[in-house]
Amino acid sequence: MSSKNRRDSCVSSRSLAPHLALEMSRYSAKSWKYWADEIRDIRDNIKGEEPRRILAEIAANFERLHDWTLKQSGPSKQQQAIDVLVSSPFSAATRDRKPKK
Q1: pLDDT tens-digit profile of 12-35?
Q2: Residue 88 lies in a domain
Q3: In angstroms, rounded to a whole number, what is the distance separating the alpha carbons of residues 101 and 31?
Q4: HSE of 10 in the Cβ direction (CA atoms, 13 Å)?
Q5: For residue 37, which of 68, 75, 2 has the smallest C-alpha distance?
């Protein structure tokens, strides 16, 4: 995805709707990922090798925070539900059912 398309599909921090701000807590993995993408968008639209390098480092740091937060928080509730479903075979649910004739 090009930076222009990503920028168009992202909500700018200046126009972040209040309900989205509440949904994306200040230090969540989702928020770190959001800021990494925002910094990359800025980097893609700025001239000069040194500012671009600095912004790339900042984005990489936000990515590291994203990864660290995911490791600290453990699996999400959604992932836990998926793990439970996958751990029990689907055939167990139909084992007692008689085949249709």
Answers
A1: 444 554 444 444 566 788 889 999
A2: no
A3: 54
A4: 22
A5: 2
pTM of the model: 0.52
Contact 39, 3 (CB under 8 A): no
Range of the domain at 16: 3-75
HEC letters along the chain: CCHHHHHHHCCCHHHCCHHHHHHCCCCCHHHHHHHHHHHHHHHHCCCCHHHHHHHHHHHHHHHHHHHHHHHHHCCCHHHHHHHHHHHCCHHHHHCCCCCCC
Residue 91 in any domain: the answer is: no
Specify if 87 maps to a domain: no
Total structural domains within the chain: 1
